[in-house]
Amino acid sequence: MQGSMFPFGSTLPSEAFVRLPDRSFHFQPVPGRLSWSRNYAAKGIKFICACSSLLFQVHGNVYPTGYYNVTMYIGQPARPYFLDLDTGSDLTWLQCDAPCVRCVEAPHPLYRPSNDLVPCEDPICASLHAPGHHNCEDPAQCDYELEYADGGSSLGVLVKDAFAFNYTNGQRLNPRLALGCGYNQVPGASYHPLDGILGLGKGKSSIVSQLHSQKLIRNVVGHCLSGGGGGFLFFGDDLYDSSRVVWTSMSSDYTKYYSPGVAELFFGGETTGLKNLPVVFDSGSSYTYLNRVTYQTLTSIMKKELSAKSLKEAPEDETLPLCWKGRRPFKNVHDVKKCFRTLALSFTDGKTRTLFELTPEAYLIISNKGNVCLGILNGAEVGLQDLNVIGGIGDFV
């Protein structure tokens, strides 16, 4: 799980989800709302031409790659860097030749930083430190240290440099944005060779927040991930049809996370009896994580149902903790999805009840052994305690 989910800060409008035809959910911060709709290809959403939005191609998949990334062009001259998408953290950073004390394998040469240091007094610097702990040894620069949930970390200094973007109408822009020059990295358990992290969280240091503060885009970020791999990322609010969206408010109890609050879990349209589950969304996590009791209850229900079907547990397949095999190897989730039922999280916003559905395509993978595996894991085993995290696998169909 690459994203920290925890070093969020500050206040941005909240997140929303919308279902696109033959694609997944994408999300965008809009004032105090989370949205999604169950519109399929027959009711396809048409994209609206926009001159104030930025669109990026997404590469990767949940399995077997294990992560998603986009290419950003940074510096003068602009050079390409592959960055891990992470709605669970704010700061965008690159492995940096400052010089580098400890860096890991990356697809491109190390970033050569500009001489434009972000000073200690800058509000972006303050947003990266806990209240009362914003102390800089050198007032002329801002040092940062980020720790991620998978045990990884990045230590560095903030700089400003030019980013090369194109609006969807073809117009070019080159804003100067703050980013981290990471000169000391410790790889985490989910390490993969990329140039850095693209922080899409809610804090002031987020690229989206900075672009919005310069009045270059509306304060909206969204992604759409394909079950077959890849997808797209966008900044700005003109690439979706708001009339196809069902809304629910974001929770004020979870200011650090993209969270609609607590939910009740349904399986196949029937309640599991599990209620008041705190839920957050994090694209930096490849899989979905449930707290210990929720995970054990759900897997117990699934095992009981599947015991009467043609699937048998496959403990010899160590791709994920829980896998099943059929009479013959499966080629894709479509081959086996009829054996599984849809999960749903029910959120209540005052008098309004909204369902966030996870079809089998959004929680199953097919291993390289041809077995079907559950892409929902026990969060207690990675230190998430009571938190329930909807990761990348839950963002596509």
From TrEMBL:
UniProt keyword annotations, A-Z: Aspartyl protease, Hydrolase, Protease
Single Gene Ontology BP annotation: proteolysis
* Residues annotated as the enzyme's active site: D86, D282
Q: Tell me which SUPFAM superfamilies the record gives.
A: Acid proteases (SSF50630)
Q: Which InterPro entries match?
A: Aspartic_peptidase_A1, PEPTIDASE_A1, Peptidase_aspartic_dom_sf, TAXi_C, TAXi_N
| Domain named Peptidase A1: residues | 68-397
Q: Which family does it belong to?
A: Belongs to the peptidase A1 family.
The name this protein carries in UniProt is: Peptidase A1 domain-containing protein
Organism field: Citrus sinensis (Sweet orange)
